[in-house]
C-alpha cells in the first residue's frame, strides 16, 4: 500500500470520526433538552454500574449513558488516528500535529464530561463541553477533506480575511447559544421579533453573564431570574442577526469570486446552512420551544460549523502538484 492509499484510508477514518462527533454533539443536546444531564449522577458509570439498572429514572439514565457510549467510541477512533499518524509520520502529507491536538482535546472532553455531572450542570462547564465537542468535529472534518491542489486567485485570497472574521463571529455565537441553553433561557422570550411583547424588555445583563457562581448549586432547570434569562436570550438573538449577516455576506462574496466549483459550493452551503438555522430558531420560539425543534436547532448549529470548515478548507488548498517536492519512498512499492 503506497502513501496515497494510506492517506485515503486515514481520511476515511477521520470522516467516520467526524460523523460520530456530530452524533455525540446532537445526543448531548438531546440529553440536555430532556433534562437528563443528571440522569446518571456519577461518572463514568451510572449508579455504580456500566449501564442503567433499577428504577433510578432509568429513561433519563439511558439518554445519558447512550451519549457516553458513543463518546467513548469516538475516543477510540481518535486514539486510533493518533497511533496511525505517529506510525506513518514520514509519509508525505500525513498530518500529525492536528491529530495530536485532537487527542489532547478529547482527553479534556472526558474530564469536562465528568465535571458536567459532578458540578451539577454548571453552565460554564457545560458550555465549555459543547465548545470542545464542536472543536473536535472541526478538526476531524478538516482532516477528512482531501484538499484541492491549486493556487488561489487574487479574489479568492481576499476572501480569507473575511472567512477568518466570520469564523470568530461563529464561535462567539456558539457561546451565546450554549449559554442560552445551559441557563434554560430559551423560553424567556416566547414571542418574535419582540421579547415579552416589547422591543427592549426590562433585562438584567449584570446577572446574566456571571460565568462562575460557586459550587454546590444544582443548575438543572436553571437558577436565574427571568430578567437575566431575557438578557441572555435577547443577546443570543442579536448575535444571530450579526452572524447571519456575516455568513450570508461571506457566502455571496465567495460565490461571486470563486474560481473553483468547490469554493462556490462551499459558499452556497454556508448560506443555506445559516438560513436554515435562522428559520429553525424563529420557528422554535414561535411554536413554544417544542423538543424536536429545539433539538434541530442544535443540529443546525452543527451543520453550520461543518459548512464553515468546508469553506475554510476550500480557501486553504494544498500546493499544486508541480510544487510538491518528491521524497524518497513516495513511489509505490
What does this structure look like?
The model is unreliable at 326-333 (pLDDT under 50). The protein is built from ten helices and no strands. The protein has helices at residues 3-33, 58-87, 97-118, 123-144, 154-157, 159-182, 205-208, 226-257, 261-286, 291-315. Helix 4 crosses helix 10 (291-315). The protein is mostly helical.
Which key features would you list for this structure?
mainly alpha; 333 residues; 66% helix; disordered C terminus
Helix-strand layout with pairing:
Elements (H helix, E strand, L loop, with lengths): L2 H31 L24 H30 L9 H22 L4 H22 L9 H4 L1 H24 L22 H4 L17 H32 L3 H26 L4 H25 L18
Helix pairs in contact: 1-2, 1-4, 1-10, 2-3, 3-4, 4-6, 4-10, 6-8, 6-10, 8-9, 9-10
The pLDDT mean sits at: 91
Number of strands: 0
Please trace the helix and strand order, writing H or E for each element.
Answer: HHHHHHHHHH
- Tell me the helix content: 55-70%
Structural class of the helices, strands and pairings?
Answer: mainly alpha
Strand percentage, roughly? under 5%
- Alpha-carbon distance between the two ends: 7 Å
The major beta sheet can be summarized as: none
Shape: flat
Radius of gyration (CA) equals 22 Å
Amino acid at each position: 500500500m503506497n502513501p496515497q492509499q494510506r492517506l485515503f484510508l486515514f481520511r476515511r477514518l477521520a470522516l467516520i470520526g467526524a460523523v460520530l462527533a456530530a452524533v455525540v454533539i446532537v445526543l448531548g443536546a438531546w440529553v440536555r433538552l430532556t433534562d437528563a444531564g443528571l440522569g446518571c449522577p456519577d461518572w463514568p458509570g451510572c449508579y455504580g454500574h456500566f449501564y442503567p439498572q433499577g428504577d433510578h429514572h432509568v429513561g433519563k439514565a439511558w439518554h445519558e449513558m447512550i451519549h457516553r457510549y458513543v463518546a467513548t467510541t469516538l475516543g477510540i477512533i481518535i486514539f486510533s488516528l493518533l497511533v496511525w499518524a505517529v506510525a506513518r509520520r514520514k509519509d508525505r502529507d500525513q498530518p500529525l500535529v492536528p491529530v495530536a491536538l485532537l487527542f489532547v482535546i478529547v482527553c479534556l472532553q472526558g474530564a469536562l464530561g465528568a465535571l458536567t455531572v459532578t458540578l451539577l450542570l454548571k453552565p460554564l462547564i457545560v458550555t465549555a463541553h459543547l465548545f470542545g465537542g464542536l472543536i473536535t468535529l472541526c478538526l476531524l472534518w478538516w482532516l477528512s477533506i482531501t484538499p484541492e491542489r491549486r493556487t488561489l486567485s487574487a479574489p479568492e485570497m481576499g476572501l480569507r480575511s473575511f472567512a477568518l472574521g466570520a469564523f470568530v463571529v461563529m464561535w462567539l455565537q456558539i457561546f451565546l447559544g450554549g449559554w442560552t441553553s445551559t441557563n434554560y433561557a430559551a423560553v424567556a422570550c416566547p414571542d418574535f421579533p419582540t421579547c415579552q411583547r416589547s422591543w427592549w424588555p426590562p433585562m438584567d445583563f449584570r446577572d446574566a453573564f456571571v460565568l462562575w457562581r460557586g459550587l454546590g448549586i444544582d443548575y438543572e432547570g436553571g437558577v436565574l431570574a427571568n430578567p437575566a434569562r431575557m438578557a441572555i436570550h435577547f443577546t443570543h438573538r442579536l448575535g444571530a442577526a450579526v452572524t447571519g449577516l456575516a455568513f450570508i455576506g461571506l457566502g455571496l462574496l465567495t460565490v461571486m469570486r470563486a474560481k473553483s466549483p468547490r469554493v462556490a459550493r462551499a459558499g452556497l452551503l454556508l448560506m443555506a446552512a445559516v438560513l436554515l438555522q435562522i428559520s429553525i430558531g424563529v420557528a422554535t420560539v414561535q411554536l413554544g420551544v417544542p423538543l424536536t425543534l429545539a433539538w434541530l436547532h442544535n443540529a443546525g448549529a452543527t451543520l453550520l460549523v461543518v459548512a464553515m470548515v468546508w469553506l475554510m478548507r476550500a480557501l486553504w488548498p494544498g500546493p499544486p502538484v508541480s510544487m510538491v517536492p518528491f521524497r524518497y519512498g513516495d513511489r509505490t512499492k
